[in-house]
Amino acid sequence: MPRYIAFLRALNVGGHHVVTMEALRGHFQAVGFGAVETFIASGNVIFETAERNGAKLEARIEKALEAALGHEVVTFLRTPVELAAIAAHQPFPAERLAAAQALNVAFLKAPLDATAERALFALRTEVDDFHVHGREVWWLCAARQSDSKFSNVRFEKAVGAKSTFRGIGTLRKLAAKYVTA
Taking the model in full, what pTM does it have? Predict the structure, then answer.
C-alpha cells in the first residue's frame, strides 16, 4: 500500500494550534488511513492508504482536520521517494552549506511560477539565500535564524502561496527512517 508523509502547516508553532501527536494520529486514523505514525511534534505524519491521488488526499486531510480542530491546516504530501530526493538534493555548494547556520526546506503545493521566483529572489540578503527545485524551496541562513529578517509570513506574501518549512536535519531523519522501511 502506498505510503505518504504529510507536512502540516501551523500546528504546534509558538504555542498556537497545539495538538498532541496521539490526537493527530487519531484524526488520521479516523479518516481511514493505516500505519499512522507521527515524527516530532511539528506536524509530520506518516501513513498508508490505497489512494494514489496526492491532491485529493491533501484536500481530504485538510477538510477532516479543519472539521476536527476548528482551523485550517494546509497539508503538503510527499511520497518516500520524493522525500529521499529532497533530503539528498544539494541546493548550494558544499562550502556554503558547511558555513551556514541553518538549511530549511519549504513545501509548496505547486512549483513557483517565474513571477513568484523573482519575488523570492528579491528577498536574498547577505544572511538569506534561496534555491528553487520542483515544489520545494531551500532557505540557506548564513547566521542564526533569529538574526534573519526572513520569515514564513514574508515568504508566503512574496510568492503568493502557502507553505510550511522543515529543517534539513528533520527531513534527513525522516528519509532515513521511512524511505527504506
Answer: 0.94
